Amino acid sequence: MTTVLPPQTTEKPLQDSVGRREPGRFRTTPSRLRLLSIVSVGAIVVLLIVSAGALSSRRSAANSVRDDSGAQLADVQALYHVLADLDATASRQLLAAGQPTAKVRQRYLDDRDEAGRLVARIAERAQSSPKARRALQVIATQLPLYSQKVEAGVVNSRFGFPLGAEETRQASALMRTDILPATVELYKFAADDLHDDYERGTSASQMVWIVVIGLATLAVLAVTQIYAARRTNRVLNVGLLVASVIVVVLLVWTLVRFNNEQSALVTAQRDGSDTVQVLSSARILALQSQANANLRLAERGTGDVYRAAYVDLVKKLCGGRECRGGTLGYAHQLAARTGTEAQITGIQDDATNFQSVVEQVVSEDENAEYARAVALAVGEQAAAAQALDTSIAAETAEAQVRFDAAADDARGGFAVLAIALTLGLLLAAVLVLVGLQPRIAEYR
Amino acid sequence: MTARRTAVFTGLTLAALLTAAGCVSTSRAASDVAVNAVDTATATTTTVAPTGSTTTSTTLPNPCQKSDPARSYQPSALPPPGVPPSRTWADEIRTRKLIVGVDENTYFFSFKDPLTGTITGFEADLARAIARVIFPGVEDIDTKIKFVTVTTNEKFGVVQDGTVDMTIDVATIGCTRWGFVDFSTPYYEAHQALMVRDDAQIEGQGDLGGKRVCVTTPSSSETFVSGNIPDAKIVRANTRTECLTRLQENTVDAVVLPSSIQAGLLVQDPDMRLVGTLHGSPEAPAENLYGIAVNKANRDLTRFVNALLEQWRRDGTLERLQSENKLPTALRQAPPDARYLD
User: Fold this and answer.
1) A302–B50: do the CB atoms touch at under 8 Å?
2) How far B64 CA sits from the closest chain A CA (Å)?
3) Is the peptide bond before B136 cis (omega within 30 degrees of 0)?
4) pLDDT of A205
């Protein structure tokens, strides 16, 4: 270290002389004007880069909310629903005697086909996510096995063999222990992705940077304008003025567009996807409640675990018998945003009705009226569950429409702005040069 | 000057816009509520597993004689035909229904007929026959009987805790089990049997070393395999039909269960075959004598059941119930003799 020090001290005077010479280069008016023109153009280019970057990020976020992450979440929710519906149908089949009716059979086939379609669509979008791929792999490999067990269950039951019920039970267990948990994972990833997009599309820091850089650019243009006016005895430099106007217009346009996009995304979430998500969960909870209520009865008397699961699920769905809390209670709070409380109240009433029928079934069973309990379960209880499912589905569809409309608003108008921003700021840079060049030339 | 004014104006506009932008923002609160609701929902339903215990200790005596576990209490006197038994337990049952623990998967013995939903089989009809004596003159006896379906793991626990009045579920009488429940005299005799896939290279108990063998748990078959074929890999199943699906799916190589159960499984999949004769030891015998399990606190009910079985051995009712339930010829038998403790 000590041997290195002496050469450093000998170099110091050299550096000083260079440092002193530097400011001298911009002492004359033309060199100062040249410097200001370079700084102005530089500021405009930086503004262009920053705002184009922010625009492309927000544009892709807004597009993704509509076409990618939002659509993915909707598909994952649909998949979860279809799988829970398959499970509820299987549990009902375990309970009911005889062959599945053509209607039940068709519902099973429809659900199965729809699950296949949804898995393919979800997989296509999830290609870049290894975690989602793993979950999808579980679903894609276990679903055919599930299907095979259900089919075998139907065939064996047709022969009057108890093996059929065992296969149905195993199919149901496969659904509950492997397939549905993997779907919950997918649901979490999709919800995370949508929220990342919401955050990317509503980033306040982008707006702050654009404002700061935009104001700095305008300040530089103003300083240049003032300096040019003083030194050249002209009131206004037209090139600079037009460039400033263009920057102001584009800045305001960009911020207005960003602000509209941001509030549209907020609307998409508050009035749309929040309700869609909460109601989708409610729908899944309702189906799983139904499945557990059926399994409790099918397992005759030793179904305490299913009863406990049912009680737990219904609590999550409703909070209590009046169904003013839980997931549906929360959905009711959310409905205040869109003035749709009445519709949610209707759903809550359906859920209360479903619960009362389930309790009737339980009390019939506890009074050892098993046949009556089963008849009630496959009749009135199934109808109440269906009514609940239908009313939740209808309101979810309404919220989905609100989401789609707001998400469409969020991404509109970016294309024109992108072109205007690029061309306009380039034009402004050219105008700065064109406006100042004659003034600089006057000093030659 | 104009430029400065413009700058000030622009600055104010932008500041106003920024303030407006700051007012609205997205939040993931609702999304988290939605995801958590179904996440825990799945967690709850996946933890579902049948519970049941046969290990609760009891202070009641174990009268079992190691040399002959099938000895039961002396029969009591039966009421005249058409008259219900005048006993406290009978009065209690008559206020409700007779509650019987049964299996729902064992073809021929006790299974839920998938076409009618009714619990069907030799043992189910045995339960109905008992109910007919407690409720004489009832037209449709199914209105006076409640079947509780139990897994192998649960069948003695429900007797002990009073969930059921009795369990009739191919329950092999054994001294350990006498510690938890009382047994009636035997109504059927079976023996451990070995089932393999038709193309398997297994011809008897000697070929099972290192093979995966399915048994239900806890069961006489589990005791038999661990006691007599120690080098087999035991795979434990909750239900008897689960063993068959495992054999079909090649997750086990063989199934060891009593002959009574195997015959029913074989009917459901003719691609399987029964091989060899299994040999047991005094600690883990190959023979199964089936008794009806009754709560130890209700010895009088055991005596009553024994009296009925005594009568049905003599008048051919047990054989009739076997033929009515279309048991294969190999499974039909004259019931084993009754021997008593006192």
Assistant:
1) yes
2) 29
3) no
4) 85
pLDDT at B12: 67
Does residue B21 contact residue A262 with C-beta atoms inside 8 Å?
A: yes
Task: Please give the angle made by the CA atoms of A215, A51 and B27, to the nearest 5 degrees.
Answer: 100
ipTM over 0.90: no
Instruction: Show which of residues 223-282 on chain B sit within 8 Å of chain A, judged by CB atoms.
Output: 239, 241-242, 244-245, 265, 267-269
pLDDT at B110 over 70: yes
Burial of B20 (0-12, 13-18, 19+ CB in 10 A): middle
- Closest chain A CA to residue B268: A161
Closest CA to A150 of A174, A171, A179: A171
Distance of CA A291 to the CA centre of its chain: 29
Across the range B241-252, mean pLDDT stands at 93
Amino acid at B201: Q
- Those residues with Cβ within 8 angstroms of residue A66's Cβ, 6 or more apart along the chain or in another chain: A404, A407, A408, A410, A411
Reported for A160-163, long-range contacts at CB under 8 A and 24+ positions apart, including other chains, are A160/B113, A160/B114, A160/B115, A161/B107, A161/B114, A161/B267, A161/B268, A162/B104, A162/B105, A162/B106, A162/B107, A162/B111, A162/B112, A162/B114, A162/B241, A162/B268, A163/B105, A163/B241, A163/B244, A163/B245, A163/B265, A163/B268, A163/B269
Distances in Å between the Cα of A210 and the Cα atoms of A217, B17, B155 are 10, 12, 74
pLDDT of residue B46: 39
Judged by CB atoms closer than 8 Å, whether chains meet at A313 and B45 is answered as yes
Best CA proximity match to B243, nearest among B223, B226, B221, B227: B221
pLDDT of residue B177: 93
pLDDT for res B179: 92
Which residue, among B12, B38, B40, B214, would best test binding to A if mutated, counting the most A CBs under 10 Å from its CB? B38
Per-residue model confidence (pLDDT) at position A411 = 87
CA B65 to chain A, closest CA, distance in angstroms equals 32
- Yes or no: say if A222 and A236 are a contact pair by the CB < 8 Å rule: no
* Residues contacting residue A413 through CB under 8 Å, at least 6 positions apart: A257, A260
Token readout for A171 is: 């199919």
- Is residue A24 within 8 A of residue A412, CB to CB? The reply is no
Helices (H), chain B: 2-23, 29-46, 88-95, 122-134, 157-160, 175-178, 220-228, 240-248, 259-268, 299-315, 317-324
CA distance B12 to B6: 10
Say whether residue B11 is in contact with chain A using an 8 A CB cutoff: yes
pLDDT of residue B57: 46
At A210, is the secondary structure helix, strand, or coil? helix
Residue ranges of alpha helices (H) inside A96-203 are 102-125, 130-158, 163-174, 180-201
- Contacts A285 to B, Cβ<8 Å: 37-38, 41
Q: Is the pLDDT of residue A14 over 60?
A: no
- Residue A23 vs residue B258, higher pLDDT: B258
Q: Which of B39, B33, B28 is nearest to A327 (CA)?
A: B33
Q: By the 8 A CB rule, do A136 and A122 touch?
A: yes
Quickly state the pLDDT bin for A355 (edges 50, 70, 90): very high
Inter-chain Cβ pairs, chain A and chain B, closer than 8 A: 238
A265 or A231: which leads in pLDDT: A265
- The model's confidence at residue A4, banded by pLDDT at 50, 70 and 90, is very low
Rounded Cα–Cα distance for residues B341 and B315 (Å):
23
Least confident among A36-40, B42-46, B93-97: B42-46
